Amino acid sequence: MNASELFVQCLKSEDVECIFGLPGEENITFMEALRTSGIKFITTRHEQSAAFMADVWGRLTGKAGVCLATLGPGATNLITAIGDAYLDRSPLVAITGQASMDRMHKESHQYIDIVSMLQPITKWNTTIPSPEVIPESVRKAFKLAEVEKPGATHLELPEDVAAEAVNRGCSAMSRRKIRRPAVDHKAVARAVELIRASKKPLILCGNGAIRKRASKQLKLFLEKVNMAVTNTFMGKGAANWDYDYNLLTIGLQSRDHVTCAFEEADLIICIGYDLVEYSPSFWNPMRDKIVIHIDFTEAEVDEYYHPETELVADIAGTLWELNERFTGVCENKGAWAAKYRQSILDDINEYNDDTAFPVKPQKIVHEIRKIMGDDDIVISDVGAHKLWIARMYIARSPNSCLISNGLASMGIALPGAIAAKIIYPERKVMAVCGDGGFLMNVQELETAVRLNLPIVILLWNDNGYGLIEWKQKNQFGHAFGTKITNPDFVKLAESFGAVGMRVEKTEDLPGMLKEAFAADKPVVMEVPVDYGENLKLTEKLGKLVCPI
User: Measured between alpha carbons, how far is 159 from 97 in angstroms, rounded to an integer?
Assistant: First the structure.
C-alpha cells in the first residue's frame, strides 16, 4: 500500500461519500487510489466551484465536504471558496497536491507555499511529510473542520510522498463522537432571572441555531415563553415562520421594521449568533441592550456586543435546560412585537399580484415561494437579489434557504445548487443568481448537465452589478463602473445542453417556473428585473417611523 491508498482509506473511515475537484499532474497517484475506492469523484470545471460545492455540502450535512486540487494555480483557485467556508462556518477539508519535497526549499516550477497562504483562512492546515502521519493528519483535519465553530482545514500531499510505500501496521483512525460539557447552572439561573424580569425580550437566531438541530428545542422554548424572535440571513428557518411573533429576517443596514423591534426590546437573547453575519453595531448602536449569549463558544469581544451572561455549551442542550426552568403558563412577552410582524408581512405581500414588467423583486420572491416546498432548497448568490431573498423569502425549515453572508462571495449559487441536488435528489433545488454572479462560475453548467441534475437557475438580469449601483446611488446620487453587457442567456444555456428560458411577461413567470421544474435537465431562466425598487425601498425605510 502506498501513501495515497492509505490517505483514501482514511477518507473512507471518515465516511466521505464524494470529492469535488480537478485532477492534476501532482495528484495523479492520489487519483489512481481514489479510482477504485468507492468514493465518488465529481470532476468540476474550476477549482473554486469544487470548494463551493464542498462548502455547501458541509452546511447542509454538518459533515465536512471535501475538495481536491493540484499544486500552484489549482490550489490558489480554491482560496475564495475556502475563505467562504471559513467565515460561513461550514466544515470543509481541502486536499492539494504539491511539488516533491526535494524541490520545496528553492525556486521551482509552479511551487507556491500554499500552507502559508491558507494559514489565515483555515482552522488548521499542514503538509504531510511522510506516509506515517497520514492517519493522524486526516483525523485531525476532519475533527477540527467539524467541531464548533466549524470551518475549513487543509492537507497538502507532496507528489513524492503520495507514491511512497507505507509501513506495515499503519491504518486509518476511526471517528469518535464528542460529548460537550453541560451548560453552567449559574449562567442558566442568571439567564432565567433576566428573562423573567424582561417585558419585551427578543430572540436573535444566527447561523449556529440551525447547525446542530436546535430548532426543536427552540420551538418548545418559544411556546413556553411567548417572546418575539428574528433571524440573520444565515439563520433563516431556525424558528417556525408562522409563529405569531416571528419577525423573520434582520440584515439590511437601513432602518427596517425589525430594527424598530430591536430599539423597543429590553432584552436580546442571541442564539448561535455570529458577528460575521451582521454587526451588532446595527442593532445595538447605543451599546445599552442587555444581552444573553447562547452559543457553542464564548462571545467575541466587541464594544457593541457585551453580554450580561454567556451560556456556552451545545445550543440544543442549553435550550433544553432553559425549557426545564419554565413550567406552567408563562406571561405573554411577545404581543408587543405583533405590530412589526404585520408590517413585515404587508411588505412581503404588497406586490403579489403585480404585473409590471420588468418584474419587481418582490414579485419574483413571491413566485419562488409559491413554487418551492417547505423542505426544498433555495441557494442565493450574492448581489442585490440576495437582500430581497433575505428580507422577503419565508424559509419554512432550517437549511431551506442558503445565503453566504460571512464572506458573502459571488459565484456560490450554481456550484452550491449542484451539491445540494446531489445530497437531496428528491427535493427541488433553485439557484438564484444575478447576471454578474452567474457568469463567474457559468462553466459549471456543463457539470450539472453531465451529472444530469435537474436544477433551476433563476437569473435576475439587470445588465449590471445592481447591489453596488444601489449603494453608489444612495451615497453619491449616481453610479460608476457597474454596467456590463451580457450574452444571450437562452442560447448560452442551450450551448451547454441545458434548457434556456426567458420571461417576456410577468404573467408568464408562475407557469414557466412549473415548466422549469418539470424538465429533466438543468434550466436557466432569465428574468428581467426592475431594480428601481432598490432605491424605493431605501427611501421607504429612511422615512420609517417606529411605532414604539
Answer: 6
Question: DSSP character for 297?
Answer: S
- Specify the domain boundaries for CATH 3.40.50.970 within the chain: 3-162, 350-540
* Cell numbers standing for residue 174: 476511526
d(CA 435, CA 124): 35
| C-alpha to C-alpha distances, 123 to 57, 113, 147, 148, 407, nearest whole angstrom | 18, 17, 10, 11, 15
pTM of structure: 0.94
Collapse the DSSP code of 165 into the 3-class scheme (helix H, G, I; strand E, B; otherwise coil) and give the result.
Answer: strand
Q: How far is CA 467 from CA 363, 451, 472, in A?
A: 18, 32, 9
> Mean pLDDT across the stretch 61-86?
96
H-helix or E-strand containing 40? strand 40-43
Q: Which of 132, 134, 41, 118 is nearest to 79 (CA)?
A: 118
- The grid coordinates of residue 126 equal 499542514
Provide φ and ψ at 359, rounded to 5°: -80, 135
The half-sphere exposure of 43 on its side-chain side, counting CA atoms within 13 A, is: 8
Assign domain 3-162 to its CATH superfamily.
Thiamin diphosphate (ThDP)-binding fold, Pyr/PP domains (3.40.50.970)
Place of cell 404588497: 350
Spell out the CATH class of 350-540: alpha beta
> What cell numbers appear for 86 in the block?
471559513
The grid coordinates listed for 44 are: 468540476
Q: Where are the alpha helices (DSSP H) in 181-294?
A: 185-197, 215-225, 257-264, 280-283
- Integer-rounded Cα Rg, in Å, for the chain is 24
- Burial level of 168, CB count in 10 A (0-12/13-18/19+)? exposed
pLDDT (tens digit, 9 = 90+) per residue, 495-543?
A: 999 999 999 999 999 999 999 999 999 999 999 999 887 777 777 776 6
- Which tens digit of pLDDT belongs to each residue from 346-375? 989 989 999 999 999 999 999 999 999 999
Q: Cell numbers at residue 62, please? A: 454538518
- Could you tell me the CA-to-CA distances from 241 to 245, 324, 406 in Å, in that order? 9, 24, 23
Residue reference for cell 413566485: 367
402 touches 431 (CB < 8 A): no
Over residues 382-405, the pLDDT tens digits come to 988 998 899 899 999 999 999 998
- In this structure, the number of other CB atoms found within 10 A of the CB of residue 92 comes to 34
Q: Which residues have CB under 8 Å from 150's CB, separation 6+? A: 58, 62, 64, 89, 90, 91, 211
Report residue 383 as a C-alpha cell.
Answer: 448581489
Residue ranges matching CATH 3.40.50.1220 in the chain: 185-336
Max Cα distance, the chain (Å): 73
CB 85 within 8 A of CB 57: no
Mean pLDDT computed over 13-37:
94
pLDDT at 407: 87
pLDDT in tens, 528-540: 999 887 777 777 7
Amino acid at 482: T
Counting every residue written for the chain, the total comes to 548
Fold of 185-336: Rossmann fold (3.40.50)
Place of cell 431562466: 525
